[in-house]
């Protein structure tokens, strides 16, 4: 009988905690240490550093800026929303 394997897919949507290392081996050791922790201990670590559970990567990438017809700056939210707005404008 073949061994049955289970695979999990994680969809990451927010960065809640991170650490920086100068040495890759220290980073790997820390990753192994954290993987051995129970979920409750990992949550306590996140809450100790980021109690509001804010997305720490949110400010890393600012959306591009465009100038609108009035000469004001608009932030482009996504290419998809621009296409939807453009299609709606063309259909009217």
What do you see in this structure?
The structure is a single chain. The protein has 92 residues and is mainly alpha-helical. It folds into two domains: 1-59, no CATH class; 62-92, no CATH class. Helices cover 39% and strands 7% of the residues. It is built from three helices and two strands; from the N terminus they run H-H-E-E-H. Strands 1-2 form a two-stranded antiparallel ribbon. A hairpin with a 5-residue loop joins strand 1 and strand 2 (73-75). The longest helix has 13 residues, at 79-91. The radius of gyration is 22 Å and the shape is extended. The protein starts with 23 loop residues before the first helix and ends with a helix. The model has no long low-confidence stretch (mean pLDDT 78).
């Amino acid at each position: 009988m073949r061994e049955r394997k289970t695979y999990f897919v994680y969809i990451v949507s927010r960065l809640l905690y991170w650490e920086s290392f100068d040495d890759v081996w220290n980073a790997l050791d820390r990753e192994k240490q954290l993987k051995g922790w129970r979920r409750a201990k990992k949550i306590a670590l996140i809450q100790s550093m980021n109690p509001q559970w804010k997305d720490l990567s949110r400010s890393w990438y600012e959306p591009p800026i465009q100038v609108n017809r009035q000469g004001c700056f608009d932030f482009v939210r996504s290419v998809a929303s621009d296409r939807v707005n453009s299609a709606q404008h063309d259909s009217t």
